[in-house]
Amino acid sequence: MKDKATLEYQGKKFEFPVVEGTEKELAIDIKKLRSTTGMITLDPGYKNTGSCESAITYLDGEKGILRYRGYNIEELAEKADFLEVAYLLIFGELPNKEQLHKFHEDIKHESHVDEEMKKILDAFPKSAHPMGVLSSLTSALIAFNPSSVNITSEKDMYHAIIRIMAKFPVLVAWTMRKQKGLPLDYGDDNLGYVENLHKMMFKRPNKEYVKNKIVIDALDQLLILHADHEQNCSTSTVRITGSSHAGLFVSLSAGISALWGPLHGGANQAVLEMLEAIAADGGDTQKYMNKAKDKNDPFRLMGFGHRVYKNFDPRAKIIKRAADEVLGDLGIEDPILSIAKGLEKVALEDPYFVDRKLYPNVDFYSGIIYRALGIPTEMFTVMFAMGRLPGWIAQWREMRLRGEPIGRPRQVYIGENQRPFVPLNKR
Ligand code: CMC
């Protein structure tokens, strides 16, 4: 017999099934809570709420484990490329050579973006934040691909997925080129997926594009490390938007908006701006540590802390090592890296951070690598979105294939009770 959890309230007992995941995580299934007890649960920020069952990503915040479809992130970051990882996340298995080839060929075939999209991009001021531009362009894509809205078969779903995997890198590149005042560039079908992204972003109008393996490998690894992270803020946004059967592209656009915030993906930009501010202020890390600990100061140490990781973030460990290697290989000496390391050292020994289990997260060192690769600070969160694309797609696909109901939380109302309307002249 399956385990049950008992809830006792006002002398009555109610039983609820206990669900066990493949990694032995236990959850109380409260689907029938309201219909049997008349009560709901209250959990702001969903700190204790599982919104779905998912077979995509496993993470154990206490042990610092992150796995995509059962494969450790460390192994994937070292041995796979981003396109393989995207296929793995979306379809559940690592592709064989034929499957990977077909996936890539299908993507290449769809990589054009309608010329009229350029007019939409043109309408933005150069100063517009790239995340706002990216979110708008992703939404605008629907107008040019209307058949990707109403997904009624797995074939439609595959097409929508291929289309966005193909067109998103073009939008990412165009977003950056617009900001830099560079002519918009199209990709080159002879290049790998990440290499093509890099070429579209950086090709100068009057120069031939030359591949730099160190740069492409670093970018590939960063994209893999960001590719999925189970039910975080933006992914939950994608799933909840898609749960109304809004199309894939708008669901992604909503996810991009959610990612933008500095408590989520926007932290990578905020980290670099913080490190630059510390450098400009004479490099006094202790001063900023004190600010972060002061409850009367809204300042937080950006790139530190995580809702789930309470020991270490495995992605941060890989990125820290990569930052050293990439800067070394490219022959770059960045004083910001030593400030980051100094800040980390002080924080890891400080009781405030130790007691609250606050460790560097994925965003703490990623910006230093992006900077070394020549990516402007405001584009950092766009790069996060590029990496997270396959994870969002996989989560949206899973949600649709499982036929999940529309997401619609309840609330505990704490406002006024019923009262009579007062006419304007009597208020
Ligand atoms: N600096 C100073 N204090 C902090 C920090 C920080 N970065 N993070 C958490 N705390 C304190 C917080 O004030 C609270 O203290 P107390 O218990 O005394 O009230 C305690 O630690 C717990 O924090 P919380 O806000 O309840 O934790 P949370 O799970 O709601 O928030 C977080 C997690 C990531 C939003 C938060 O740690 C934070 O704001 N970090 C900085 C922003 C950041 O780096 N975000 C990137 C997250 S990783 C990438 C991604 O998934 O997007």
From TrEMBL:
InterPro entries: Citrate_synth-like_lrg_a-sub, Citrate_synth-like_sm_a-sub, Citrate_synthase, Citrate_synthase_AS, Citrate_synthase_bac-typ, Citrate_synthase_sf, Citrate_synthase_typ-I. It catalyses: oxaloacetate + acetyl-CoA + H2O = citrate + CoA + H(+). Keywords: Transferase, Tricarboxylic acid cycle. The keyword Ribosomal protein does not apply. CDD domains: EcCS_like (cd06114). Pathway: Carbohydrate metabolism; tricarboxylic acid cycle; isocitrate from oxaloacetate: step 1/2. The keyword Transferase applies. It holds the Pfam family Citrate_synt. Belongs to the citrate synthase family. This is Citrate synthase. It comes from Muriicola marianensis. The lineage of its organism: Bacteria, Pseudomonadati, Bacteroidota, Flavobacteriia, Flavobacteriales.
